Task: inverse folding
């Protein structure tokens, strides 16, 4: 079975940093673009960032550019999201999603709460 | 950025009803459109991709159509498990934006 499992969420103060991880199994992780999608409480889905198979291309939504960094380690079948200068509006459930540009696979989500 | 606008935002329906949800893109997205279903507390689930292709394992009562800027998701006969929130998403260009969602209740 295909699985994506996020970890690393938690409570952080405004201006702080956090690193999310996502481990994939049951599919050829290295063959696909991977994406982070977030969902603020009671709100809709927001595409955050994606990364090409070999890590050579990365894209971000404007609201996180310069603050978030997406990366991957194909040997570990892992996707990462390094988040810094966090703001209250970054509070959300963060989903790891794959494969390609629409999302067949989703993780269970990691809660990130930014609060004093 | 391409803006995706869904209508209606919410929809009241009953088991057995036929329902249609519309998604309009701010520019031509050449059928690069997916539909997702999200139940409370769960991750989204892919239903339709390429505007009209049914994802494996998704019941055939779900169908998608459209072209250019206008797309629809149709559920031919609502089942109890279909009451959820539905999102469209364009993957024609980055950022790969979602619609605001349609709550089916």
Result:
């Amino acid at each position: 079975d295909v699985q994506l499992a996020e970890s690393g969420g938690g409570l952080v103060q405004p201006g702080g940093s956090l690193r999310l991880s996502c481990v994939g199994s049951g599919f050829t992780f290295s063959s696909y673009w991977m994406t982070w999608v977030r969902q603020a409480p009671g709100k809709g889905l927001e595409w955050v960032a994606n990364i090409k198979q070999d890590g050579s291309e990365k894209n971000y939504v404007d609201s996180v550019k310069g603050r978030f960094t997406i990366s991957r380690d194909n040997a570990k079948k892992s996707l990462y999201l390094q988040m810094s200068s966090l703001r209250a509006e970054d509070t959300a459930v963060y989903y790891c999603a794959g494969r390609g540009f629409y999302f067949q696979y989703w993780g269970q989500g990691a809660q990130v709460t930014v609060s004093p | 950025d391409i803006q995706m606008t869904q209508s209606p935002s919410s929809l009241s329906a009953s088991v057995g009803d036929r329902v249609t949800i519309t998604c309009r893109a701010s520019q031509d997205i050449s059928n690069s459109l997916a539909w997702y279903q999200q139940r409370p507390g769960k991750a989204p689930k892919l239903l339709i991709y390429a505007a009209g292709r049914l994802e494996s394992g998704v019941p055939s009562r779900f169908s998608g159509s459209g072209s250019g800027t206008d797309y629809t998701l149709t559920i031919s006969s609502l089942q109890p498990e279909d009451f959820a929130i539905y999102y469209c998403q364009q993957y024609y260009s980055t950022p790969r934006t979602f619609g605001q969602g349609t709550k089916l209740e």
